[in-house]
């Protein structure tokens, strides 16, 4: 497989977005020792927040999965930016955080999270397997349905 | 004290469950350098989700504490699986994340989280003391009342 | 700039509070290798929980920003306690977690989180830039509007 993350994503028929830029006093990725931390990423289409609403209400499970895929592409865009698009510098993803705007009755957080987990494994192979925590939250920035963050391990 | 986590838990009159298996593209524990990350664990009885509902509604504070204990046993089952049940490989627990399905009015997240914190300290002694973050969330996978995740430090 | 965190905060016209003491089986800071983990901190005034309520309801955006600043001072109090108030031991803040008690309709989690991000950068300079994840939650301990946690990197 190619060591370019951008090429791998294109081989899946997907498109690596331009990494979003924070509009405040924070940054989107930080390296500490061998760990790369990435800020919470929301689903963006043409740079604009997409999939507005809650699971269990206006957002269907299938839409939630799409939202998780889109947010995962945002994580991968930050990863590519941090690595200069060179996957040989990546040991693996360690941890995925999945935050799903959901009603109190919604119980399928796992199914929605799979949208992101599957995309990460399809793109990164064995390096894409991760621990994760998926929870249903009250609301997310810009009203989106899904937000993701992650920790990756880099080569020394 | 025994260096078998299983034996310590049995000495407390409790039972270490079989570690749950993920049913998707993620895994339950990952080691990165000296850190062991564990996926979100929910309360399971005979392998089935238990304590369904929210704090401040159908789940009482006492039930929430029991749910937190049960989810903590799930964390310890993953820890035991990762260590081959040998506690001499454990430096300490670093961080506990506590997610409590709760109404907007519920204010006793700390009391519920103590169910998990106390079990960890009772089982692991000084190695069980940790930082933690406890929050009330809208809903959790399978509708359970409590979910926990954790980071442990291992010997080099 | 001074290497005393307390002095820097006083130069901003603010006051570093006494670090809160946990009232249960957890601790407020843990060092693992080069990383310092800090427990969730809530806004305290004279040691008592402040800014009770949810964003989008009884707590205005301006009050939410103030609550985030106050919780950030709590993080800095823990940081000062862990470092013996000596900032030369600090490499940087790595990650900020921002939990905002909010209605399902609330969309300005980022603006509230900026209250904390700005205070950290104003106090710590380049060492204060961080990744962050901001989410809206159902409810927080003692009913407060904002809770923060953090990971810092220390010198070897």
In terms of quaternary structure, the protein is homotrimer
N- and C-termini, Cα separation of chain A: 22 Å
CATH superfamily descriptor of chain A: RutC-like
Reported CATH architecture of chain A: 2-Layer Sandwich
Overall pLDDT level of chain A = 96
DSSP strand tally of chain A: 7
Which two protein chains have the largest interface (Cβ within 8 Å of the partner's Cβ), and how many residues from each?
A-B, 38 and 29 residues
Tell me the series of helices and strands of chain A, N- to C-terminal: HEEEEHEHEE
Low-confidence stretches of chain A: none
| Beta-strand proportion of chain A | 25-35%
Number of helices of chain A: 3
**Number of self-contained structural domains of chain A:** 1
CATH topology of chain A: 60s Ribosomal Protein L30, Chain: A
Structural class label of chain A: alpha+beta
**What is the CA-atom radius of gyration of chain A, in angstroms?**
15 Å
Q: How are the strands ordered across the major sheet of chain A?
A: 1-2-7-5-6
């Amino acid at each position: 497989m190619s060591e370019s993350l951008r090429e791998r994503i294109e081989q899946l028929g997907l498109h690596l977005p331009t990494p979003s830029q924070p509009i405040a006093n924070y940054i989107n990725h930080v390296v500490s020792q061998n760990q790369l931390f990435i800020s919470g990423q929301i689903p963006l289409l043409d740079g604009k927040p997409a999939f507005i609403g809650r699971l269990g209400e206006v957002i269907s499970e299938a839409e939630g999965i799409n939202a998780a895929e889109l947010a995962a592409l945002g994580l991968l865009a930050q990863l590519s930016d941090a690595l200069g698009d060179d996957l040989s510098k990546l040991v693996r993803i360690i941890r995925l955080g999945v935050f799903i705007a959901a009603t109190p009755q919604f119980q399928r957080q796992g199914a929605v999270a799979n949208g992101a987990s599957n995309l990460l494994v399809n793109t990164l192979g064995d390096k894409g397997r991760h621990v994760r925590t998926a929870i249903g939250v009250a609301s997310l920035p810009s009203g989106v349905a899904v937000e993701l963050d992650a920790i990756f391990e880099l080569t020394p």
